[in-house]
Prior knowledge:
By secondary structure, the chain is mostly beta strands. The chain is 14% helix and 41% strand. It is built from 9 helices and 53 strands. It has a 9-stranded mixed sheet. An 8-stranded parallel sheet has the order 2-9-8-7-6-5-4-3, with helices on one face. Strands 31, 33, 34, 36, 39, 41 and 53 form a 7-stranded antiparallel sheet that branches. A hairpin with a 3-residue loop joins strand 10 and strand 11. The chain is globular, with a radius of gyration of 27 Å. The two termini are 44 Å apart.
Amino acid sequence: MNVTGHTSLPAADAAAVPQRLTVDLGASEGPVLLGANGALYGIGDDGVPGDAVLAPLKITSITQKPEGGAQHPNGDALSVAGSFFRNGGGEINVMMQDVYARWPYENLGIDDYLPKVDAIVEEVSADPHGDRFVYIPFNEPDCIWYDLGVPDRARYEVNRDRFFEDWRTVYRRIRAIDPEARIAGPNETGYHTSLMADFLAFAQRENVLPQVVTWHELSPDSLRDFQRHHDDYRAIERRLGIAPLRISIDEYANRRDLSVPGRLVQWVSMFERNKVYANQAYWDAAGNMDGNVARTNIPNGGWWFFRWYAGLTGDSVEVTPPRPHTADTLQGLASLDISRRQAQVLLGGSDGDADVVVRGVPGAVFGRTVVATVAEAAWSGYEGQHPAPRVLARIGLEVAADGSVTVPLRGGHRMSAYRIVLTPGGAGVPSAASVPWSASYRAQDAMITGGRVRAQGTGADADGYATSGTRDADSPDTVADRVDFTVAVPADGTYDLSILYGNESGAPATQTLLVDGADPVTVTYPSTQNRAYLARKDLGVELSAGTRVLTLARGDAEVSLDRLDLTARTGAPAASYEATLADIGGSPSYDYSSSAGVGTGALVLRDGDRAVFDVHAPRDGYYTVVPRSSATVRLTLHGERVTAAPDRPLRLYLVAGNNRVALTAGHAAVRSLDVSGAGSTAGTLTYDAASAALTGGARLVDSAHAFGGSCIDDLGNSPDSAAEFTVHAPDSGRHVLVVHYAHDDRRDNGHAYNTDILSRTADLTVGAGAPRRVTFKNTWSRDDYWTLGVPVDLRKGANSVTFRNATGLAPRIGRIELGRVFRRP
C-alpha cells in the first residue's frame, strides 16, 4: 500500500494478489431499506445539526429521550421532532427510562415509574405526529433494574418473571392511553437467545408482543456475531408461530467506529443485508449525528458515507466479501436501480488492493459497455470537515461475455469508504479523473522529542477513539520539545497541509510550524471536545522538491497530533456534482447516450421535476457555480431562485459546510453542477461587535480571539436586553446573515462517557419582521468563534438586525457578515 492510502486505478500489479469482493446484480435482496442511518441523541436541539446536513441523509429513525427527561440536558423527542420531520425523517424512538437522571437509572420501583409512563404517553400521543413515535419502555433490562444476566438459573427466573410482569403492566398502561401505540423491546444490552425466547413466548401468551423488537450491538464481536443473532431471533419467531416483526438495533458501533467511513460500511452492510433498522450509539455529545457532523453544518468523512448510503436506490443486491462476518476486513453493500440504469457499490474497511467483480450486469439495462466512476470518502476526524469526495477514476469498461465487469482498486485505506457507480457507456470518452499528488504521515511514526505516544481505538480497546494508526502523540510539554515529520514532495510549489489534531485546553491553542527548521509560522487550533476527539486544521505551505522536515513545536498549550496530509495545490478548489447522482423530485429521465465529460450521463428535467445537489463550501463566501445543461435552468439556494443560462457562471453565496442547491427547468438535460472557489468575501457587509447598540445589560467585552478584539457578552435573560446592528444594504433582496459566535454552556449529568453540552438561542429580528428563534451549538470554549448562516431579507438602505433572548443567555457575538445570495460575476 502506498503511504497516502488514496486509491488509483492503474493496471493491477502482477506480483500482488488483490482481495476480491463480488457483487451479483442478479441476486436481489429486496428494496433498499436505508434502515441503518439513525442515531441515538443524533439531534440535540431544533437546528443542531442544521437542516442542510440532516435532509440529505434520509434518516429512517432516531432515538431520543422523553420531553423533560433528566438523563441528558437536551435531545428531547418532541423538541427535536420539528427538525427531524421537516427534513424527511421517518420515526422517533422514545427512550422512556431516560426520564430518570442517574445512570444506571435510579430504581424507585414500578409504582414510581408508572406515573412517568402516563405523562410521557399522554404528551407524545397528543402531538400532531404522534403516530410517528415508537415507545421503548425499558432500556437494557438485562442489566438495569432486573439483573437478567445472573448465572444462577433460579435467580434468573425470579428476575425474569419480575421483568415480564412489569413489561406487561407498562405495555398495557401505554395501550390504555394510546391504543395504536407502537412499543419496542425488550432492548437488551446485547442479544441473549434464552431471554429472547422466554420473552417472546411470554409476550405472545399475554398478548403484549412488541411491534418492534430491539436489542443492542455494542461489541467489536457484533461484526462477527450479528448474523447469527439475527438468524436465531427469526428462528424463534418461526418456532413460536409469530409473524416476522420489525427489528431495530437501536444502539450499534463502538466509539472507534463512529465517523470512520471504512468501519461504518462494515456495520451498515450487515444491517442493510438483513433489512433491519439501526441507530448509532451515543458515546460523546448530542447533536452531531453521533460523530458524523462537525459543528452545525459541516460534513466529515462519516457524513459523506451516509450521504452515499442515502443515495442507494432500487434493490440491494448480494455482496460476497473475501472474509464475511470478520471485523476490520473488506466489506460492502450494493444496489441496482433498473429505472435509473445505475448500480452502486459501497465498500471499505481494509488496506491494500482489491478487485470488485460485478456479475449479472443486465445487458438490457446497461448495454455492452459501462462507465465506472470511483470516489473516496476518507476519514477526516470526528470534527474535521471533508470536502465533496474526490473522484479517483472514471473509466469505460466492456461487459464480458459472462455478464461481468471488474473494477480494480489499488492502495485502498482501511479507514476510507469507496463508492463505485456503474452507468451505461455512451458515445465519447469520459474525462479522466484529476487526482493531485498527496501523501499522509502519522504522528506515531514521526520523530518525537518530548511528549508521549498513546494507544487509541484498537480492536482490544474499541471504546477508545479512532486514530489514523493505533496511536496518537501528545503535544510536547516544553519549548524545546517538538514533533518532526520527514516528508518527500515531488516538485516545488504550494501544498495544502491538513493536520488532524485534538485540543482540550479550553481555548484556541497554538503550535509553531517550521520547514527545515526555518520560517516559523504560528498554527492556531480551535478547541475540540477532548484531546482524542480529532478535528482538522487546513493551511497552505510552500515546499521545495525533495525531502523536507516539517516541525510542529510547542506553542501556548498542549495539542495532540494524529496525522499530516500533504496535497499538491493545483488551483482553486473545484468539484463537479453529477446530476444523475443528485436527489430527485418528480419523474425526470436519465440519458446515457454520451459518456463524455463527467461520464455518468445527463438528468433530463421537465416541468415538475427537480434535482437537489449537496454542495460543499470550505468557508462562508462567494463561489462560482456553473450549471452544465442543454437549456436554461432555475437554481434555488437559501430561498432565492435565479435563472441560469447553460454553461454560464453564477456568483452564489454558500455557507461553510453543506448547501442544498435545487435545480428545475422547463425542459433541459443537465450533466453537472460545477462549483469552484475558496469562498471570496468581496462584496460582503461586515460589522464588528463594537458597532452594535447594546441595552438591558448586554455589554462589549475584550475577547482576544474575536474579530476586532471584542465581543458582545451578557446578552439576554431580560426582555430589555438587546444587541442591535444597523446594516446598509446596497440593494434589496435575500441575503445570508453569518453570525460569528461563541459559548460553552454545559451541564454535568455525571456520565463519564457523555459530554453534556447545551445550545444557546437568540431571537433574531430584521427590520419590522417577526422574531425568528435561532439555535447556536456549543463551540467547546467561550473563546472559539464559529459561524452560523441564516437567510434574511434586506431592503435597500439601512436595516436593523437585532438579537434578543428574554428567557436565557444568547451566545457571545463577535461580528456579523451579510452576503447577497446571488451576484453577477
